[in-house]
Specification:
Helix 2 crosses helix 3. This protein is 37% helix and 23% strand. The protein is an alpha/beta fold and 264 residues long. The chain has two domains: 174 residues, Rossmann fold; 68 residues. The chain has seven helices and ten strands. GO terms for molecular function: ABC-type quaternary ammonium compound transporting activity; ATP binding; ATP hydrolysis activity. This is Carnitine transport ATP-binding protein OpuCA. InterPro entries: AAA+_ATPase, ABC_transporter-like_ATP-bd, ABC_transporter-like_CS, ABC_transporter_ATP-bind, P-loop_NTPase.
């Protein structure tokens, strides 16, 4: 979707530090619009996943605020769904019961649970698999269950922490297509943390690049239009964005190299 929509989420000058005052996130400010797809990339340990946890309400910032639709939030809520890298599915429950788990804990009636779960399972392409055991599913199918479990709560913001990193390339690309379709159907705002530059470009309206200090180094607008088609991955436009983001990710290394000198 276009980033020209209505402002929905404001990440207002967020700071997060460890107990020893080592900074994880430093003065991160970003406004995200309704229906926008944002990807965050950066080296391991730069604060990407921590920022998702702050938005979700799992981590409280030392400074700054998370504001959603004009309201400051400081704890988890149904308006934000989280798909973790570790799927955390319950192997003793079948697909339907895994998807329904959160609704059951929230006291939703069985009739409504079943209706909402079947809708979410259909949306992720698992209709007919409701009663299958988790152990009988492929990696891609398990990831679809995790996404359905999040969608069933009908969040307005979907937070995803490297959800496809453990999958083979073909399955990963298939799920990327599914994610774009789901976002189009629901109008959700999506914030994705990924180490894949290609994934970030293909899915996103904007790509946010974190540096090693937990700060935003650059924000790249992806002007590839919608809907995205797989062939765009081999276009010159795609490769130009890839070159730009690769240079952004190398920025910290270049600064370090220059400051240390190149002599033997």
């Amino acid at each position: 979707m276009s980033q020209a929509g209505t402002s929905m989420l404001e990440i207002d000058h967020i700071h997060v530090s460890y107990e020893d005052n080592k900074s994880i996130i430093s003065d991160v400010h970003l406004t995200v619009n309704q229906g926008e797809f944002i990807s965050i990339i950066g080296k391991s340990g730069c604060g990407k996943s921590s920022l998702l946890n702050v938005i979700a309400g799992y981590i409280q910032p030392n400074q700054g605020n998370i504001v959603i639709n004009g309201q400051r939030v400081s704890k988890p809520g149904p308006d934000r769904g989280f798909v973790f890298q570790d799927l955390a599915l319950f192997p003793w429950l079948n697909v339907l019961d895994n998807v329904a788990f959160g609704l059951r804990m929230a006291g939703i009636s069985k009739k409504e649970r079943v209706e909402r779960c079947k809708e979410a399972i259909l949306m992720v392409g698992l209709a007919g698999s409701e009663h299958k055991s988790i152990s009988d599913l492929s990696g891609g199918m398990k990831q679809r269950v995790a996404i359905a479990r999040t969608l069933v709560t009908k969040p307005s913001i979907l937070l995803m922490d490297e959800p496809f990193s453990a999958l083979d390339e073909q399955t990963r690309e298939s799920l990327q297509e599914e994610l774009l379709r789901i976002q189009k159907e629901t109008g959700m705002t999506v914030i994705l943390v990924t180490h894949s530059i290609d994934e970030a470009i293909y899915l996103s309206d904007r790509v946010v690049v974190f540096d090693d200090q937990g700060q935003i180094h650059n924000i790249v607008n992806i002007g590839l239009g919608r809907p995205r088609i797989p062939e765009i991955r081999v276009s010159s436009y795609f490769n130009e964005y890839k070159k730009q983001l690769m240079m952004d990710l190398r920025y910290d290394f270049q600064i370090y190299y220059e400051s240390e000198g190149s002599g033997i």
